[in-house]
Amino acid sequence: MYFFVLGVLALSHTMSPFMCRVFPANVPNKQYQLLFTQGSGEGKEEIVNYEFDTKDLICLGISSVVGVWYVLKKHWIANNLFGLAFALNGVELLHLNNVSTGCILLGGLFVYDVFWVFGTNVMVTVAKSFEAPIKLVFPQDLLEKGLDASNFAMLGLGDIVIPGIFIALLLRFDVSLKKNTRTYFYTSFLAYIFGLGLTIFVMHTFKHAQPALLYLVPACIGFPVLLALFKGELTEMFRYEESSPEEASSKEEITESDKDK
Q: In the chain, fewer beta carbons within 10 Å around the N or the C end?
């Protein structure tokens, strides 16, 4: 039930931008508000105050159907829909403020992943036995059995989210350069694809589970750093630091107060 509720909400949030594009203009988009309060009179306190519209209800309905499908059948497509929704929401919510922190995070998890896959059987055992949308599964017998495939290769959501938040940081670094290019983003994105392809190749060659971060981390860090070194922007890359939303808003308030003075 925990993953059902979270999966429905995550998938609904992920579908929302797409629904805004395809929602018919001639259908009325009504606004709704869900409000829970505690107490009465002047002591009344808001517990929940959530505003939504018709498009959100449609997304929630579609996501609920996928959720019921997953609970009843545990089908790999439903699993992957929930897994992708979790990963996209994770990349959106988690935030790195500078490249140095990202390199330390990726480096630490590189060691962690290698140890728990090669040093013990814990990671592989949990991934195979734990029935939850915490991984993406890719049917290896799809051509033989179609949608009823049963032999799967797996990719943990951490192998998507952790490099993903680093790639998102490089996209924001691209924007900060104000050159109207996305060089570092595209480089790191292609590096991720290369690292993932190398992981699959090694896994099929040696017939053994592989820690994806063993290949993803060097690719996602190495290619952008080499590019920055080639362009002479390495120092600028590592000096780049992004304020959190709270810090940014406080700075705006200070600036406005200075203007008033």
A: C
pLDDT at 145: 86
Which pLDDT belongs to residue 249?
54
Query: What pLDDT score does 79 carry?
Result: 94
Phi, then psi, of 96 in degrees rounded to 5? -105, 140
Query: Encoding tokens for residue 108?
Result: 């630490």
**Residue 261 to residue 255: CA distance in whole angstroms:** 10
What's CA 79's distance to the chain center, in Å?
A: 15
Residue that has been written with the tokens 């931008």 in this structure: 17
With a cut of 50, which residues of the chain have pLDDT below it? none
Q: Which residues of 196-221 are buried (b: 16+ CB within 10 A; e: fewer)?
A: bebbbeeeeeeeebbbbbbbbbbbbb
Dihedral angle over CA of 126, 128, 133, 135, nearest 10? 90
Provide the whole-model pTM.
Answer: 0.85
pLDDT for residue 153: 86
Q: How many other C-beta atoms are found inside a 10 Å radius of the C-beta of residue 63?
A: 22
Could you give the CA distance from residue 189 to residue 186 in angstroms, rounded to a whole number?
A: 5
Q: Name the region of 253 (left: φ>0; alpha: ψ -120 to 50; beta: rest).
A: alpha
What residues have CB less than 8 Å from 64, skipping those under 6 apart? Answer: 8
pLDDT at 150: 84
Mean pLDDT of the chain: 89
Is 10:86 a contact under the CB 8 Å cutoff?
A: yes
Of 230, 162, 170, 226, the residue nearest 196 (C-alpha): 162
Active site residues: 113, 159
DSSP-assigned letter for residue 43: G
Q: Give the pLDDT score at 129.
A: 83
